[in-house]
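Sample entry copied in:
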Amino acid sequence: MTTMKLVAEYRRFAEEYRKLSAKLAKPADKIAVELMASAWDKVATEREDRVLNKIVRELLVDRTCQDQVHSEQPSNSLV
């Protein structure tokens, strides 16, 4: 399973816990289930952030490599 599919699944778990919480009568039970929903949201966000940070790092490395290649090419100007 891809990371983004996992993130979507974690978000779905959080939503299911929120739905369950809405059906509960006892405030303590609602709070406990909402905490589980929040935990799943946190896991999803952390996983998503890691993926996005990895993409940004890869893009920066690629850009740096391209900049180095362009700076090492001889100039075509006739001076």
User: Anything to note?
Assistant: Residues 4 and 50 are 11 Å apart (CA to CA).
